[in-house]
Amino acid sequence: MLPATFDRFRDIILGTDPDAIGAPDGIPSSFLLAGAGPLSAHYIPFDYLNRQARVVVVGITPGFAQWKNAVREARRQLALGAPEHELLRAAKYTGAFSGAIRPNLVALLDHVGLQRWLGVASCATLFGADARLMHVTAALRHPIFVDGANYNGANPNMLTTPLLQAQLLDYFAAEAAQLPDAVFVPLGPKVGQALSWLARRGILDEGRILHGIPHPSGANAERIAYFLGRKDKSALSSRTNGARIDADRLALRAKMAALGMVSLS
After folding, report:
1. If we measure between CA atoms, which residue out of 170, 239, 183 comes closest to residue 212?
2. Average of pLDDT values for 97-102?
3. How many CB atoms lie within 10 A of CB 97?
4. Residue 260: pLDDT band by 50, 70, 90 thresholds?
5. Which burial class, exposed, middle or buried, applies to 120 when counting CB atoms under 10 A from its CB (0-12, 13-18, 19+)?
6. Is the Cβ–Cβ distance between 191 and 243 less than 8 Å?
7. Distance in angstroms (rounded) separating the CA atoms of residues 80 and 82
């Protein structure tokens, strides 16, 4: 079966009120893309691809809240008669990186020196005037649920589970192949492993994957603070492996130098 596209789901989205759906189990079966045992993949209108992007930020997979937000925004845009390209961009970026995640991500990318490589004052402008330079996506583009709960990337293994592997190849790999000159920022080690798996298959260039940047979630505050030099190693709790972060930073510095980026301090 060919990968799902918005045209197939336009009328289904129009006829669906996401605010009447309280849990993943309530998503209409017409959105189902694939299922196997406790796993299910459901369409989300995230078809938009920014082909001008020079940096691609990659999460694991959208969750249920993102599914609701995207479907709600797609319905709103359809009612306004928006062109499909604008509709899909709006649906994809509604609520993207809200809360503490956005300032954390900006601080991490600026610390790495990505803003200089892009030729902008700060990566904060990627959420405004320089949005054309960034593409936001997920290793698993469409929401994955396990027994009706958001998939966290750990169980089952994305790279050895046929349904998840197919989703990775059918959607993210197809996007990545159209962005050969971009650098990829995986949000978390599971995403990094998926990107390296694709690199070993010739779909991505391992040299353009920026491993080692901590996940920008507010729950990851201590790792972020240490990476940014805002907290001493001696003050880290037992939950944070400073040596691992140091090793990741060294590897990242070497990769950045190979790409012509100014090294982080």
Report:
1. 183
2. 82
3. 19
4. confident
5. middle
6. no
7. 5
